[in-house]
Amino acid sequence: MSNSLGKLFQITSFGESHGDCVGVVIDGVPAGLAINVDEIQIEVDKRKSGAKAHTTPRREDDRIEIFSGIFNNFTTGAPICLVIWNKNIDSSEYERTRSKIRPGHADFTGFMKYGGFNDYRGGGRFSGRITAGHVMAGAIARKLISTIGIEVIGYTAELGGITAKLPKHKDIRQNISQSDVNCPDLAASKQMVALIQQAAEEGDSLGGVVECIGLNLPVGLGEPVFDTLEGELAKAIFAIPAVKGVEFGAGFGASRLRGSKNNDPFNIQSDQIRTTSNNCGGILGGISDGMPLHVRVAVKPTPSISLSQPTVNLDTMTNTSLEIRGRHDTCIVPRAVSVVEAMTCIVLADLALRAGIIPRVIKQ
Amino acid sequence: MSNSLGKLFQITSFGESHGDCVGVVIDGVPAGLAINVDEIQIEVDKRKSGAKAHTTPRREDDRIEIFSGIFNNFTTGAPICLVIWNKNIDSSEYERTRSKIRPGHADFTGFMKYGGFNDYRGGGRFSGRITAGHVMAGAIARKLISTIGIEVIGYTAELGGITAKLPKHKDIRQNISQSDVNCPDLAASKQMVALIQQAAEEGDSLGGVVECIGLNLPVGLGEPVFDTLEGELAKAIFAIPAVKGVEFGAGFGASRLRGSKNNDPFNIQSDQIRTTSNNCGGILGGISDGMPLHVRVAVKPTPSISLSQPTVNLDTMTNTSLEIRGRHDTCIVPRAVSVVEAMTCIVLADLALRAGIIPRVIKQ
Amino acid sequence: MSNSLGKLFQITSFGESHGDCVGVVIDGVPAGLAINVDEIQIEVDKRKSGAKAHTTPRREDDRIEIFSGIFNNFTTGAPICLVIWNKNIDSSEYERTRSKIRPGHADFTGFMKYGGFNDYRGGGRFSGRITAGHVMAGAIARKLISTIGIEVIGYTAELGGITAKLPKHKDIRQNISQSDVNCPDLAASKQMVALIQQAAEEGDSLGGVVECIGLNLPVGLGEPVFDTLEGELAKAIFAIPAVKGVEFGAGFGASRLRGSKNNDPFNIQSDQIRTTSNNCGGILGGISDGMPLHVRVAVKPTPSISLSQPTVNLDTMTNTSLEIRGRHDTCIVPRAVSVVEAMTCIVLADLALRAGIIPRVIKQ
Amino acid sequence: MSNSLGKLFQITSFGESHGDCVGVVIDGVPAGLAINVDEIQIEVDKRKSGAKAHTTPRREDDRIEIFSGIFNNFTTGAPICLVIWNKNIDSSEYERTRSKIRPGHADFTGFMKYGGFNDYRGGGRFSGRITAGHVMAGAIARKLISTIGIEVIGYTAELGGITAKLPKHKDIRQNISQSDVNCPDLAASKQMVALIQQAAEEGDSLGGVVECIGLNLPVGLGEPVFDTLEGELAKAIFAIPAVKGVEFGAGFGASRLRGSKNNDPFNIQSDQIRTTSNNCGGILGGISDGMPLHVRVAVKPTPSISLSQPTVNLDTMTNTSLEIRGRHDTCIVPRAVSVVEAMTCIVLADLALRAGIIPRVIKQ
For binding FMN, which residues are annotated in this chain's numbering (chains A, B, C, D)? Predict the structure, then answer.
């Protein structure tokens, strides 16, 4: 296992789905950053199931607790430990089906890698619930990068094959609260909701694409040749369970363009060098170029479905089938939005510190 | 800058396009691995321009030199330094157009990040030539993971929009040497070659998609939650200039499937647990599951084109236009194949060491 | 701040002296290690003030809590979070003298480095209490290295200038529980206790030397050229507040010997290569040589004394004097023994994993 | 093996004593630092044997070569690779005695750890010659920290038991060039030279103590709780072969002082907070306090002596004896001075970058 991420803004994740808690330690946060517990709670609530229709109906009362690193509402320079307690855990279903490895989940690989000692309840360490820790860390990162003006906003760009129209930045901010699936194209949003309803009734699940945008990035974030802005973001985002693809700007589409179309011409805008298009997604040579950062993330359909699936019984080493009971998100894409945002904030915070753009003490 | 990659199998890259050399130090290679200089040379030759038609016609006589870490044809446990000298460098064109930042290149971001001190000749540290170092390191990694049976093969899956038929593993090995563009679908290969010819005549360039496959991986490679197999591979592959997207298995396509179609059912094959499909690309929960690893890589069209492009003159801060002279690859996708293979080998070597699957001393 | 230590066995420390808690996350512990909460509690109790005479009389009721990473009494491969709550904290004295920087403490450097945002209560992050976290992590490390037979024992070798006779290993284990100062030379122990009594009455404090011994180390721990066994141990041990010197084997004494006396001759003992003396402290070329590891640690006298000291008032920037009230250890050397042991166990665990000597799954 | 050191100013060492070369890659050097090859050469020459009497008489013609990272005499932000070629190597003596492990050397531990594959010629990777790479990196670090006014000076404080009088800083700079053993106390220097002569005639060797001083350090270098200034320096210095002890300020002597004597009182000097004594060696809480840094390093006597020593024959696994022929330094302490200085510069450069005190681009 390797549960730390980042070089100067470094997060260390701990906890399990059905253990005592999910938590994170954030090291390297500059001293003097004003932090209010509610600012972190808001981000965690965004991710929370039950916040909106059509995700897990069980109610998670996720109150965050600050254990260290914040004193008189300012960061101290010391590591910040944040925890959410797990409550009302019922592991009986996992005990019942324990020997049957769930397709699309980490039951098999986890069992093999950890010699059967891994906590299998609720997926244990592989559960999407672990990302609550990422989101807490992301809230601190978001606050930190806001001191240099960076804003990070994400949305559901595609769900079950339904594609949202490309939104303007202000539409994302305005419309997203009106959508049950975090999609600013409200017409598409309605279709997505209907499709989730239908898939849920069929006992099946859906995937989609999250797009995340970073605004007001300075030129210079990214540490080539290995710690590129793309590479660091991709690594962080692949830590979100169910992510199977990451692309920047025109991405896979760029591979079908000619150079004359794909190259973003430079020109001078308000005395600054900008590009007139943004196929590169705000990144050239692995370094932010001052244009908006664009990253798109492919999320596979939720592997937990109630339809019967062929699988193997680990105890008897025989073929069998499995029906997963209980309530699971039909589509996690809307919830993944806040996690993709969090990972983006975390990486930008780390790279801004590494580039020397954010100082070691924040002076308000 | 950050020029080291990997935790136990760690490579450190150095050199510039028009400097003295391109080199790499590889630390953490177990002692006792038999290494012949020719094995490394073969990989470098694969990447070399001029090896096949339609890539850069200039001839690079890239003889690798071993500076350290290998004694009596075996690794010693000490760091291995490998170097290729740069020869017959002509930087006059770069001097001529120095103040005009090339669209699609790192000229602008490099200038800004390094305060104008960066070596701009031939793209300096951002040049594709730097990947010759990655390929040397990849050759060592390839030899190391072959001791546990892993094989890594890549090919051109798509070029300028032309898609190769999905090949069988043996076809990749057999056909690729007959293709000028590293495409085992020889019919598609012919079309790709013709398209390159045409784009070259038009002064334009093409992109494409590289697919890379890992065979015979043990179950257990990948260190979640942050150092997942996907995340580590993606980060390494984004260190290749021009890569704008990475996906695993069904990738972005998976986001449009239902769970019942995307989940790979388990069954028992020859007393081993395998899946009957491989939409997950051989990775579950960030850990290899024993099925073939599948990664697909989007490569943007070469940014160096001879068509005129709008850009900015850094010295005068005025809008201008640029025509890039000299000979450049119309499409780097065929050459990128060996680099994607190299990065894959490097990551697998690191993760196999981290999983304790490769010992610290190799005993033949 | 940098609060993580280790490469494969990695600990991340958090918490403050007068905050909610002191805690540690331990990542990289192999799955399958049997862990009982009492085993960790025993180590924490050893460090605890009040356990023996002449250290801080205040009673710390330090019950450890396991938050993650242990399931059914075995490690799971997931990160282990351990916490001790801070109770009955009275920060009034620190509030009273806040502006007067305490000589010998980190008040001044902490204030300067963190822009005055650091938690000054009880020394905050610089307090010796933070080492309770190190000791919890050390307990896990101790259990892990015991699986390959390694034993780590420490003792007070010198206190206030009184030197203990060099003990036999079995005497350390037997006598130490009879000494109030963790000194196996019981005659010297009595003198040390008397000296502490005297210094306490005078409002002054004492320092000393801790010796720590590692038994049954395999040959091969240490990763030169930079991560030597000496270097890794020294770095870890200097994380203990008040440590000002570290030496191995004959140490500074070796610098006054001739080579013919200092070199440890090899010979064959029970079919194994051993040295007939151990001036090198069990380390050659930065790597364990199979002989007992010997490290000696200089601990400065407790900086908190009740005698009046000249200092500066930060608010007024004027010279002033300070008398520190409250109860403080007259000598922390006896308590430092368990912390030095803990750091030694942590480093040996990390290096044993790095050398591939401890597997990724422990099979009992 | 682990051959990289540092987090932001990161050096990677390679090469062997009797291989092609000794080299180093330095990553993370800010762009815009003026570097002249002669500045590096001067430092390497200081370390060079033959530069002064009584060290190895063989003449090393160590001309450094810059392979990358410097363009038009300024650093570019790219990794800097520096190399010294090994010339006139005669390995015959090592071939002759190969099976006899040399007491006090790493022959035994190296053989065991690397399964016999290690390059044994001249000690291979464990040779003191490797420190030539450290010194090259140290020259770059020295130049970098000079941009914020830091000066690092070292000297022979003790040799074979002869102790130099504590020098004033200006005496170190002035007198050291007049001493054949880098000792500014010229009377002691004469005695040391005579003692070396005598030990050489007896076929024996001597050790000693190097003191290194850092002047004009800003307050704030050091990243507790684990990456303390003491810990980072100690780790780096223990990478020098033959070092067996490291202490700061009063060091082991502090352990025998009372708190009232050891605490350094604060007062205001020229509007700045300073201490009136410096028992802490310029470090409080693991962070520089603005006073001179004092570190003392115990160097064991050279293990290579011409007197006969009992040892073991690895091939036959029998007891035997060994006489080491050839010319070896009777005492390496004078040469170690420049290496201790180099390691100190390297650590200070890294910590100054980590503290945000040195910017990412140097503007002259």
Answer: 125-127, 285, 300-304, 327
Q: Burial level of D73, CB count in 10 A (0-12/13-18/19+)?
A: exposed
Residue D363 lies in a domain: no
Do the Cβ atoms of B195 and B201 come closer than 8 Å?
no
pLDDT category of residue D98 using cuts at 50, 70 and 90: confident
Q: How large is the ipTM?
A: 0.96
Domain ranges, residue D289? 4-354
Q: In C, which residues are within 8 Å of B356 by CB distance? A: 356, 359-360
Q: Using CB atoms, which residue from C3, C230, C250 is nearest to D238?
A: C230
Interatomic CA distance for residues C238 and D228, integer angstroms: 7
- For residue B301, the domain's CATH number is 3.60.150.10
* Cβ neighbourhood burial of B302 (10 Å; 0-12, 13-18, 19+): buried
Is residue D359 a part of any domain in this protein? no
Residue pLDDT, tens place only, C180-199: 999 999 999 999 999 999 99
Q: Cβ separation of B301 and A103 shorter than 8 Å? A: no
Which is nearest to A281 in space by CA: A214, A345, A343? A214
Cα–Cα dist B185/B181, whole Å? 10
Q: At residue D143, what are phi and psi to the nearest 5 degrees? A: -65, -40
Whose tokens are 């999609």? That residue is A183
CB–CB contact D117 B69 (8 Å): no
Q: What SS3 class is residue D199?
A: helix
Could you say which of B2, B109, B314 has the minimum Cβ distance to residue A289?
A: B109
Tokens encoding B31: 């002692």
- At residue A132 the predicted structure's pLDDT band, cuts being 50, 70 and 90, is very high
Q: What is the DSSP string of B197-245?
A: HHHHHTT--B-EEEEEEEESPPTT--BTBTB-HHHHHHHHHTTSTTEEE
C59 in a known ligand binding site: no
Q: In angstroms, rounded to a whole number, what is the distance separating the alpha carbons of residues D35 and D78?
A: 13
Listed residue (A291, A265, A260) closest to B310, CA to CA: A265
| B334 carries a ligand binding annotation | no
Examine residue B364 and state whether it is found in any structural domain, yes or no: no
Q: What is the mean pLDDT of each run of 10 residues along chain B (364 residues)?
A: 95 97 98 95 80 49 94 97 93 86 97 96 95 97 98 98 92 90 96 97 97 98 98 98 98 98 96 97 98 98 96 96 90 97 98 98 88
The verdict on whether residue A303 carries a ligand-binding annotation is yes
Total domains in the fold of chain A: 1
Q: For A275, phi and psi rounded to 5 degrees?
A: -105, 150
Kindly give, in sequence order, each residue whose CB lies less than 8 Å from that of residue A30, ignoring residues fewer than 6 positions away. A75, A77, A144, A353, A358, A359, A360, A361, A362
Select the residue of A235, A285, A318 nearest B126 (Cβ to Cβ): A285
pTM of the model: 0.97
Count H helices and E strands in chain C, helices first. 10, 18
How many CB contacts within 8 angstroms connect chain A with chain C?
160
pLDDT, one tens digit per residue, over D331-364 is 999 999 999 999 999 999 999 999 999 999 998 6
Query: Residue C360 is nearest to which of B7, B8, B356, comparing CB atoms?
Result: B356
- Identify all chain A residues contacting C10, using CB atoms and an 8 Å cutoff: 4
CA–CA dist B179, B196 (Å, integer): 13
Cβ-based burial of B88 (10 A; exposed 0-12, middle 13-18, buried ≥19): exposed
| Mean pLDDT over each residue of chain D, to the nearest integer | 94
Query: Could you tell me if residue D259 is inside a domain?
Result: yes
| Cα of B71 to nearest chain C Cα, Å | 18
Structure tokens at D258: 């009372």
Q: Over 70: is that where the pLDDT of C57 sits? A: no
Known binding residue A189? Answer is no
Q: Which of B72, B64, B73 is nearest to B41 (CA)?
A: B64
The secondary structure of chain A in percent helix, strand, coil, rounded to multiples of 5, reads 30, 25, 45
